[in-house]
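Same chain as my last thread, 165 residues:
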Amino acid sequence: MPTPDSVLSAMLSPALFMTATGSLLLSANNRLARVVDRLRVLTDQCDQLVRGVGNYSHPGVRLEHTRSMIRLQQRRGNIILTAITLLYVAFGSFVGASLAIALNVLNAYIPPDAAIALAVIGVICLLAASVAMLLEARLGVRALNRDVEFSAGITVAVEKPPLPE
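reply #2:
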């Protein structure tokens, strides 16, 4: 029969994964909030451009750019939502693994491999969520680069003198 100390030690192993998962969840939720804020700004700008409200240079080009940025931000939001879902599944799997270890010791008819299976599921979800967050970060940098290129293009267009007719 395992000692209480060995059972608690075994139950703490998944807890380390829970801590890492919690940190990633916090980061993912913060990133989602920033994407939502950016989408609100873009949709407001799109609405103003469509209605002809505001003092924007090159409204047609700006509207096209704004719409493409809205689509990109939507993709980012969907990727983050997928990562958050995977992280919650991972967290639940790690909690389940810890619980399975305890129940196994209490002879609660839990197969010994249940804890291992749950931990493996959690680790796979954690890995998949990490990959998703990496993809989202790359999209975020792509969005930033597009905005900078667009602003630079508009600035150059405004600074150029009109061609003689």
